[in-house]
């Protein structure tokens, strides 16, 4: 995706920072990690933020954090690059209700093979659209588990969702 025609977006909320790529009106990539964003966006400078879409991304982020459901995205070129197994995992993640969690093992069992918990974790790590595909809701059987945006971001998202239920 080097020298991509896509527009770069950025949104900050509380302690979270979110970078995105947009093609027309469709968000095709999100990342909580600046370096990960740079690796996907290629040579697009992080300061080339599309101001016209900035408000839309921030409103999207807030509505998602408040529990607005999202359909499984199909048109992102990054989603289309995913393997059939990753697609199955990502679809399963979209079914996790707001403010609830599932373990990697539970998702693996749901997909028909309880021995694929690590593969589920790897699919979560490759998720190109966190929040839209809520991989932060998948935890380890012994604790928080990993997250491409870092453990602090994952905990912040989970804590925020729990607080919204009260």
Structure report:
- It is globular and about 45 Å long.
- It has 7 helices and 5 strands; from the N terminus they run E-E-E-H-H-H-H-E-H-H-E-H.
- It is of the alpha+beta class.
- The protein has a 3-stranded antiparallel sheet, with helices on both faces. Strands 4-5 form a two-stranded parallel ribbon.
- The chain folds into 2 domains: 7-65, no CATH class; 77-165, Arc Repressor Mutant, subunit A (Orthogonal Bundle).
- Helices cover 42% and strands 15% of the residues.
- It has helices at residues 34-41, 51-65, 77-80, 84-94, 104-110, 117-125, 151-165; strands spanning 7-13, 16-23, 26-31, 102-103, 138-139.
- The mean pLDDT is 83.
How does the SSE layout of this entry go?
Layout: E1 7-13, E2 16-23, E3 26-31, H1 34-41, H2 51-65, H3 77-80, H4 84-94, E4 102-103, H5 104-110, H6 117-125, E5 138-139, H7 151-165
Parallel strand pairs: 4-5
Antiparallel strand pairs: 1-2, 2-3
Helix pairs in contact: 5-6
| Low-confidence blocks of residues | none
Biggest sheet overview = 3 strands, antiparallel
Widest sheet, order of strands: 1-2-3
Overall structural class, as computed from helix and strand content, comes to alpha+beta
The CATH class label of the largest domain is: Mainly Alpha
Q: Helix share of residues?
A: 40-55%
Please count the helical segments.
Answer: 7
Distance between the termini: 42 Å
| Order of H and E elements | EEEHHHHEHHEH
**Which oligomeric state applies?**
single chain
For the record, the count of structural domains works out to 2
* Average of pLDDT: 83
Indicate the CATH topology of the largest domain.
Arc Repressor Mutant, subunit A
Question: CATH-wise, what's the superfamily of the largest domain?
Answer: Winged helix-like DNA-binding domain superfamily/Winged helix DNA-binding domain
Q: Report strand %.
A: 15-25%
What would CATH call the architecture of the largest domain?
Answer: Orthogonal Bundle
Looking at the structure, what is the overall shape? globular
Number of strands: 5
